[in-house]
Write a structure and sequence with these properties.
Helix content is 56%, strand content 3%. It has helices at 33-60, 65-75, 80-87, 115-141, 145-171, 196-214, 223-231, 235-266, and strands at 89-91, 175-177, 185-186, 194-195. It has a two-stranded antiparallel ribbon. Strand 3 (185-186) and strand 4 (194-195) form a beta hairpin. The radius of gyration is 21 Å and the shape is globular.
C-alpha cells in the first residue's frame, strides 16, 4: 500500500508501488467477501441491537436492560486496542482502520474502525441468546436463575468466542494471533494459532451480560435498575445511576479480564508463534 501524501504509514506496513503511477492511482487493499461480511455484522448488528434497545425503552417508559448492556458494551470498546497489543492480534490489512490519533492506538497496524459498534453486536447478541436459554432452563427444571444464567452465559460466551475469534478469525484470516502462551492454544505454531484463554476472557464478559439481561424482577427491572431505584427518588436520577453503573461494571470487568494478558506479556510467557509474516507485506508485531 502506498501512503497518501503527508500521511505516515502505520508500523509494520511495507509500502508498495502504485498500480498506475501516471494516473495517480493508489493500490489500496480491498476487503474480500468474508471481511465485508464481518464488517457488516459489526455495523448492522450493533445498530440493530441498539435500535431495539431504544425501542423497548420507549415502549417501557424507562431504560430497558437491552439498552443498558448496549451502552456498557460500547463504553469499554476503547480497551480493545491495548488488548490486541497484549495478545498480539493482527487484523487483515484490508479492514478500514481508525485514524492514527485514536486514543490508545496500540493495535498493530491500527484498530479496525468497526470495533465500537462491533462491540455491541459481539458481546450483546450472545448475551441475549444466553439469557433466553438460561430462563428456559431455570423455568423448566426449577434451577436457581442466577447460577443458571451465569453458567449458561459462560458456556455460550466461550463457544461464541471460539466461533468468531478462532474459526472466522484465526482460521479464515480476519485476525491472526502472532504469539501465544505455549500449550494454551489451538493450532499452535501455525499462523492460525488461537489462544484459548482469549475465549475464556470473552466468555466471562458475556456471562455477566447474560446475568444483567436475564436477572430481572417481575416488572422487568434489572438488578441494576433495582439498585438505582433504591438510591434515587426520581426516574431521571435512577436512569442516570443505571447508565453510570453499567459503564463502571463493563469497564471494570473488561479491565479485570485484560489484566492477566498484560501480566503474561510482560513476564515473557507469550512466546509461541511464527517468524514469517502473518499477512503479506505486513511485518509481525514485535515481542
Amino acid at each position: 500500500m502506498t501512503p497518501r501524501p503527508g500521511v505516515t504509514p502505520r508500523p509494520g506496513l511495507t509500502p508498495k508501488p502504485d498500480v498506475n503511477p501516471d494516473a495517480g492511482l493508489i493500490d489500496e487493499p480491498r476487503p474480500d467477501p468474508l471481511l465485508t461480511a464481518a464488517i457488516a455484522f459489526a455495523y448492522v448488528g450493533g445498530i440493530a441491537l441498539l435500535t431495539a434497545g431504544v425501542y423497548l425503552t420507549y415502549r417501557r417508559g424507562r431504560l430497558h436492560p437491552l439498552l443498558l448492556v448496549c451502552i456498557s458494551a460500547i463504553s469499554f470498546s476503547w480497551i480493545e486496542a491495548p488488548y490486541d497489543w497484549a495478545v498480539y492480534a493482527q487484523f487483515a490489512p484490508a479492514i478500514p482502520r481508525m485514524p492514527s490519533w485514536w486514543p490508545l492506538d496500540m493495535t498493530w497496524h491500527g484498530l479496525p474502525a468497526s470495533v465500537p459498534p462491533g462491540y455491541i453486536a459481539y458481546f450483546v447478541l450472545p448475551a441475549v441468546i444466553g439469557a433466553g436459554i438460561g430462563r428456559r432452563l431455570s423455568a423448566r427444571f426449577g434451577w436457581r436463575r442466577p447460577l443458571t444464567l451465569l453458567t449458561v452465559g459462560l458456556v455460550v460466551g466461550f463457544c461464541w468466542a471460539l466461533l468468531f475469534n478462532a474459526v472466522l478469525g484465526a482460521r479464515l484470516g480476519v485476525v491472526y494471533y502472532g504469539r501465544v502462551i505455549p500449550g494454551l492454544a489451538l493450532w499452535q505454531g501455525t499462523k492460525h494459532q488461537y489462544p484459548l484463554y482469549d475465549a475464556l476472557a470473552m466468555g466471562v464478559q458475556m456471562m455477566v451480560f447474560t446475568y444483567l439481561l436475564g436477572r430481572t424482577a417481575p416488572d422487568g427491572r434489572s438488578v441494576v435498575d433495582l439498585w438505582a431505584d433504591r438510591r434515587s427518588s426520581s426516574r431521571v436520577g435512577s436512569s442516570v445511576l443505571s447508565v453510570v453503573a453499567v459503564v463502571v461494571i463493563g469497564t471494570a470487568l473488561s479491565a479485570a479480564v485484560f489484566a492477566p494478558h498484560i501480566v503474561a506479556k510482560e513476564e515473557g510467557w507469550v512466546t509461541a508463534g511464527r517468524t514469517a509474516p502473518l499477512f503479506p507485506e505486513v511485518a509481525n508485531q514485535p515481542p
